[in-house]
Amino acid sequence: MIELEPHQWEMLGRYLGAGIALGMGGLGAALGMGNAAGAASNAMMRQPTQQGELRRTMLIGQAITGDASIFALVVGLFILFFPAVQPEEVGGNFFAAMTGAGIAIGFGAFGSGFGCGFAAANACAGVARNPRRAGQTTQSMIIGQAVAQSPSIFALVVALILIIRQAPGTDLATMGVCIGAGIAMGVSAIGSGMGSGQTAGGAVLGLSRWPRSYGVTLRTMLIGQAVCETPAIFGMLVAFIMMFAMQDIPEGILGFAHMLAAGIAVGFGGIGPGIGSGLTSGPACVMAATYPRRDTLILRTMLIGQAVAQSTAIYALIIALAILYVV
Amino acid sequence: MEHIGNRLVWYFIPFTDIEIPMGGLNVLTVFNTLVVMAVLFFLCRLGVRRFALEPTRGQYMVELITGVFDNLVIASLELETKEKNRKFFFLIASLFLFLLLSNFMSFLPTHYFEEPTADINCTMGLGLMGMAIATYCAIKAKGGIGYVEELLGPLWHQEDATGGAAIAGKLSALFFFPLNIIGEIAKVISISFRLFGNITGGGIIIIVISHLVWNFSVLSIGMDLFFIFFVGTVQAFVFTMLTLTYISVAIK
Prior knowledge:
The complex is a heterodimer. Chain A is 84% helix and 0% strand. Chain A has helices at 6-46, 51-65, 67-81, 92-129, 134-148, 150-164, 172-209, 214-228, 230-244, 252-269, 271-290, 295-325. In chain A, helix 6 packs parallel to helix 9 (230-244) and helix 11 (271-290) packs antiparallel against helix 12 (295-325). By secondary structure, chain B is mainly α. In chain B, 72% of the residues lie in helices and 0% in strands. The interface between A and B is large, with 39 and 37 residues.
């Protein structure tokens, strides 16, 4: 085990955590914003007279896309400046708490930021296609993006709990809990954020073509996004179990490995199902806008497809719970 | 900031030494749930006090809300008679109104009024209720054997399979049955944790950002409007619609 002074542990944790938080969090939002800007440029080429409207839509969309990275900024500031509870006793646990919080919010904000970019890009394309309904397109984009922020909100909750519940001293099992919870929450939120964003993008695209089916499309979108967020919810569940409900963690490197393995299982297992559910519900929203009278059939087909796509997230959850409780 | 996520729990009956069974009572959650129910009852009573052909404002509001949910239930369940749909309409409309008022509750700037939905016990209870109703409806619609056969997977019931294929189909139930059972449990977990996470997360974001800007109140009010009213409405709707969809999938 590495022997370090308390202030060295503290600096190591703060710098690493804040770096991961802002680095990954900024990456997603930047990709999303670039996506929106590219779509807006394309749209301006098609409709040069609508430049003002397009610029407005692009800016609103980019502003909301940036929300997730603002959460990352808030947590990053906390990681840098939140006082250590017992400054003399700072050790590996503090380092792990800060790193875990950074991983949670950094990766968690990546998905939401990247996903919201799809909605903003499709809104720009939609305004160019149907400039007279620009208001409604922008409105549906805002609703979809706001719901697509949910995974990053879960990640924010877990990150703040990790920061506030920091423990003194150095203890490998507790370090495993912190880093494992961060990976479980943060990485599983990537897929959910991207999937929710793709769903919102599909709904915006459909509504710009068929503005009359507003209610049906929004309903399909909300349910689709809710199902897309399931992997992030499993990640949050495993993170909560690790932080609050573990009675006897094995001592030393064994406990560290248990916690880390459970976090990796549910975290990385959640990426695919989230994106896959988004690939299901995005076209479903377009179809619901196209054929609003068939919405029940579309909704049911979408839910069955998403349920099958979710099954790998459920396997990951089972493996994580087995690692925590059985092995 | 240190008491984020703590809920007031009574482990003993006040002024006595008698322990409350099952690990205590979340007293504020129970109290606020009762408050929401009372307010809801009072408002609905007020709305329909005098029914008239030409509706008053209150009656119009009640008719608007009930009409929306009546149409939603009919569109997604597609049962034969109006009475059968009406049975589920009561559940769905009251669930939505209950969740809506519960989520709006923390806007009251008073102590002791906090959202019951920020307590996992409340949302988990509602999720279990929805799942129990959906399972009951499935058993009623398909019979006990039909329900179990559905859990045994798509390959269990093959008319044209013979010999090895039929045995393989029956053996696949060993794989599908646990998965379907866990899938049902995962539905409850996801529906209840979604509501809980969104409501709790909104509250924590408001606390943290208010703390960071030294309680500069205009910003806090703006965030209240977003996180309490917008997110609260959306999540109440999502919870209600998911419950309705689970029921409709179970029936068909």
